[in-house]
Design goal:
This protein is an alpha/beta fold and 251 residues long. The chain has eight helices and seven strands; from the N terminus they run E-H-E-H-E-H-E-H-H-E-H-E-H-H-E.
Length: 251
């Protein structure tokens, strides 16, 4: 399988969780990595941890808030900065940023909580896809990988809003693979994964979701992160979905 050594990888949402794990795995493969997150402290800390773990790593960090206005103009500035005005093109973009609406009974949803996740979960990925071809090498060796969730295949009570966005990503990925060829576009669909997103209820969530998984365990970011490395390296994969869910869809 082709190597990503020396290739340039941008990870949006790369300061924690699955994005951080994917960034570390790419660095271990010899790629040059830029991570992006909305929290400057987390960006600095993530870069420091990656550099300490892999002293030879070529890693940069950038602050960027996907939820603020003027998203397209700011994304253009971000791409321009990272690629030195397009003189040093990217090879891969990984998008793991997420906006998680709280579980809400259908009787209580409103236009506001339907639309709340839209900028991060749908608008930003589409605008990224619009701009990215100007800053990616135009080749099957290049890729964009989005992040969905297993709720698109196995609904959960009161998760209708989240499931709507996760399912939209399936169609978006396939159509972008058609529209952006020869650049490849794929989607990773994690199941329950032990990350900072579980917040103060992390231990309780871990035990609950272990009981739902066929393998009796939840995923860890390092396991799910391997899916992004695979999709970067398989130059024949486009419009593809890779699941990592502990067999939760089989129960």
């Amino acid at each position: 399988m082709p190597s990503i050594t020396g290739q340039s990888v941008l990870v949006i949402g790369g300061s924690s969780g699955i994005g951080f794990a994917a960034a570390k795995l790419a660095l271990e493969q010899g790629a040059h990595v830029s991570i992006v997150s909305s929290n400057p402290t987390r960006v600095t800390d993530a870069v420091s941890r990656l550099q300490s773990s892999i002293p030879t790593a070529k890693i940069t960090g950038h602050e960027f808030n996907l939820a603020l206005p003027d998203l397209e103009a700011r994304l253009l500035t971000l791409f321009t900065t990272i690629t030195s005005s397009g003189t040093s093109l990217l090879d891969h973009i990984i998008y793991t940023a997420v906006s998680l609406p709280p579980p809400t009974p259908i009787s209580e949803i409103s236009p506001e909580n339907i639309l709340a996740p839209s900028q991060v979960s749908l608008i930003a990925p589409l605008l990224l896809a619009k701009l990215a071809p100007r800053f990616l090498n135009p080749s099957p060796s290049s890729s964009i990988t989005f992040t969905g969730g297993h709720v698109s295949a196995k609904p959960i009570p009161n998760y209708t809003v989240m499931t709507t966005y996760a399912t939209a990503l399936l169609g978006m990925t396939r159509n972008l693979a058609l529209d952006l060829a020869p650049i490849r576009v794929n989607l990773v669909q994690p199941g329950s994964t032990d990350t900072e997103l579980w917040g103060d209820h992390r231990e309780k969530a871990r035990e609950f979701w272990k009981g739902k998984a066929l393998l009796g365990k939840v995923g860890i970011p390092e396991e799910v992160g391997e899916a992004y490395v695979y999709l970067m390296r398989d130059w024949n994969a486009t419009g593809s979905f890779v699941d990592s869910n502990g067999g939760s869809l089989l129960r």
